[in-house]
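Customer escalation, tier 2.

The customer says the design service returned an amino acid string that "doesn't look like it belongs to this structure." They asked us to rerun it and document both sides in this ticket. The original structure tokens are below, unchanged.
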């Protein structure tokens, strides 16, 4: 038996095809919301690590 054709054809299928394109996926939309977030997190983490290391090794006295 051959598969039966669909009972109806969506006339708007071509116009809705962009919604299924990978560019408009949830992951792509989320990653484009904050384009520099990854670099900023790495830079801030490096800053905190260096600051803590530098502060502990050179002693900052008894500041209030």
């Amino acid at each position: 038996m051959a598969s039966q054709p669909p009972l109806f054809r969506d006339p708007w299928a071509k116009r809705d095809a962009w919604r299924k394109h990978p560019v408009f996926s949830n992951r792509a939309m989320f990653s484009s919301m904050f384009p520099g977030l990854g670099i900023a997190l790495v830079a801030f983490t490096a800053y905190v690590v260096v600051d803590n290391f530098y502060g502990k090794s050179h002693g900052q006295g008894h500041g209030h």
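Tier 2 assessment: The sequence is consistent with the input. The chain has three helices and no strands. Helices lie at 13-16, 26-33, 37-58. Sent an explanation to the customer and offered a walkthrough call.
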